[in-house]
From TrEMBL:
Superkingdom as given in the UniProt entry: Bacteria
Name the UniProt record assigns to this protein: Sodium/glutamate symporter
GO molecular function: glutamate:sodium symporter activity
Topology in the lipid bilayer: Multi-pass membrane protein
Xref: InterPro entries: GltS
Keywords for the protein's UniProt record, in alphabetical order: Amino-acid transport, Cell membrane, Ion transport, Membrane, Sodium, Sodium transport, Symport, Transmembrane, Transmembrane helix, Transport
Localization: Cell membrane
GO cellular component: plasma membrane
One GO term of the biological process aspect: L-glutamate transmembrane transport
Predominant location category: membrane
Task performed by this protein: Catalyzes the sodium-dependent transport of glutamate.
Length: 405
C-alpha cells in the first residue's frame, strides 16, 4: 500500500510526532535525563516505524516536506539575533578564551572525522556530518547542513547527520557531569574554596526583568524576522556571487545572509536606548520554528538507507566523543584556569560540544547542585554555546565541505 501526504497533512504528522515526543520524554525518565528534544524523540519513533513498514513491504509513505527549508531559515535567523557583542563584552576575557577553545574543537572534530573516514571507507562529505555539524552543532545544524551534502550525490546525508547528532546528545549528557566531577574531586575544588568569580548575574544573558509576553510582541518580532529574511536572502546571493569569482563551486545556504543581517540588527538594537529586538518574543519564535524544522526532518528520515553503515557511524561517533572528552578534560579545564569555574565550564563544554545548549545547562547543573554555584561558568557557556558557536560553526563547516568534496 502506498500513502501520499500533502503539505498540510505532512505538517499535521510532524506536529503529532512532536506531541508523541513530548509525551515520551515526560514519561520516560532517561529521555528527560539526557535532555533529548521531543521533536527528535517523536520523529525518530515515526522514522523507525516507517522503516519497518517499508522493509516489510506493508506500507510506503510519501511526504511533502517542502516547508522544512522555510522553518530552517526562520530558526537560523533567530540564531543571528543572538549574536550580541554587548553580551560578549561581559567577562570578555573568559568568554573570549572559551570561544576560541570551542572554535578549535570544531576543527578537531571535523579533521578527525575526515581522517577516520579513510579507515571506515566512508565518503569524506558524509563523514564530515559526524563531526561538528552533529556534535558542536547538534540536530538543528546537522539537519541544515545535510542538504548541501545530499546535493553532492549522498542521498542518505540527512539520516546520517541527524542520527549522529542524536547519539552525540546522549554521549554528551552521559559524560559532561562525570568528567567535570572527576576534576573537582582530583583537585579538591568547590565553590567554597575557589576564588570568587565576582559575578552576580544569572545563568543566561537573556535573564532580567521580564514583561508579560503578548501576541502583539510575538507578531512584531515575526514581522521583523521575515523582513530580515527578505533582506538577507539578497545578501546571500551577493555573497555567493562574490565568492564564485574567486573559488568555483562554493555556495552558501540561503540562511547565511539572514543570519548576518539579524546579527547587525541585534547590535544596532543593543546600541539604542529603546531596543527593537524583543528577546522573549524571538525565543518563542525560535522554539516553534526549531521544533517544526526538526519534526519535519525527523519524520522524513530514510533510516533504511544507512543500515549498512550503522556500525562504522557508531564507531566514528564513539571516537569523536572520546576525543572531545579528552579535549575538554585536559585542554579546556587547564586553559580556563584549572579551578572550580573551569571544571563547571568543562561540563558545559561537553554538553554543547556533543549535543546542545540545553545539554550544557543540564551538565553544569549536575555539578553546581552538588558542589556550589558558578555564575561565571554559566555566563561563559551561555554566551558561547547559545549565541556565537552555531554562527561560527556554519561558516567553518562549509569550508570543510568544499575541502572534502
Amino acid at each position: 500500500m502506498h500513502i501520499t501526504l500533502n503539505l498540510v497533512q505532512t505538517i499535521g504528522l510532524a506536529i503529532i510526532s512532536l506531541l508523541v515526543g513530548k509525551w515520551l520524554t515526560s514519561n520516560i525518565s532517561k529521555l528527560e535525563e539526557y535532555s533529548l528534544p521531543p521533536a527528535i524523540v517523536g520523529g525518530l519513533a515515526f522514522a523507525l516505524v516507517n522503516m519497518v513498514l517499508r522493509l516489510t513491504g506493508l506500507v510506503t509513505i510519501e511526504l511533502d516536506t517542502s516547508l522544512t527549508m522555510f522553518f530552517m531559515v526562520i530558526y537560523f535567523t533567530t540564531i543571528g539575533f543572538d549574536a550580541s557583542l554587548k553580551a560578549l563584552s561581559r567577562a570578555k576575557q573568559v568568554v573570549g578564551r572559551f570561544l576560541l577553545l570551542a572554535v578549535l574543537a570544531i576543527f578537531v572534530q571535523n579533521i578527525l572525522a575526515l581522517i577516520l573516514s579513510k579507515f571506515f571507507n566512508i565518503p569524506g562529505p558524509v563523514a564530515l556530518l559526524l563531526g561538528s555539524p552533529a556534535l558542536v552543532g547538534g540536530p538543528g545544524t546537522a539537519a541544515a547542513v545535510s542538504p548541501s551534502i545530499a546535493e553532492l550525490g549522498y542521498t542518505n546525508a540527512s539520516s546520517v547527520g541527524v542520527i549522529a547528532a542524536t547519539l552525540g546528545i546522549v554521549l554528551g549528557s552521559i559524560s559532561g557531569g562525570p568528567v567535570a566531577a572527576a576534576a573537582v574531586k582530583k583537585y579538591d575544588l568547590s565553590a567554597a574554596n575557589d576564588r570568587s568569580s565576582a559575578m552576580t548575574m544569572g545563568n543566561h544573558p537573556r535573564q532580567g526583568r521580564k514583561k508579560p509576553l503578548t501576541g502583539q510582541r510575538i507578531a512584531l518580532m515575526v514581522y521583523l524576522i521575515f523582513l530580515v529574511i527578505f533582506a538577507g536572502s539578497y545578501l546571500t546571493q551577493i555573497i555567493n556571487a562574490s565568492v564564485s569569482h574567486f573559488v568555483d563551486g562554493i555556495s552558501f545556504p540561503v540562511y547565511i545572509g539572514p543570519m548576518i543581517v539579524a546579527a547587525v540588527v541585534r547590535n544596532i538594537s543593543d546600541a539604542r536606548p529603546d531596543p527593537i529586538v524583543d528577546d522573549q518574543a524571538v525565543a518563542v519564535t525560535s522554539d516553534i520554528s526549531l521544533n517544526l524544522f526538526l519534526s519535519l526532518t525527523m519524520i522524513s528520515l530514510e533510516l533504511w538507507t544507512i543500515i549498512d553503515m550503522a556500525l562504522p557511524m557508531m564507531a566514528i561517533i564513539a571516537l569523536e566523543a572520546l576525543a572531545t572528552i579528552l579535549f575538554a578534560r585536559f585542554i579546556v579545564f587547564k586553559v580556563m584556569g584549572q579551578n572550580y569555574d573551569a571544571a563547571v565550564m568543562t561540563a558545559g563544554f561537553l554538553g554543547f560540544g556533543m549535543g546542545s545548549s540545553s545539554n550544557a545547562m543540564a551538565c553544569m547543573r549536575q555539578i553546581t547542585h552538588e558542589y556550589g554555584p558558578s555564575p561565571l561558568a554559566f555566563l561563559a557557556v551561555s554566551i558561547v554555546g547559545t549565541l556565537f558557536i552555531d554562527f561560527i560553526n556554519i561558516f567553518v563547516i562549509y569550508g570543510f565541505i568544499q575541502w572534502a568534496a
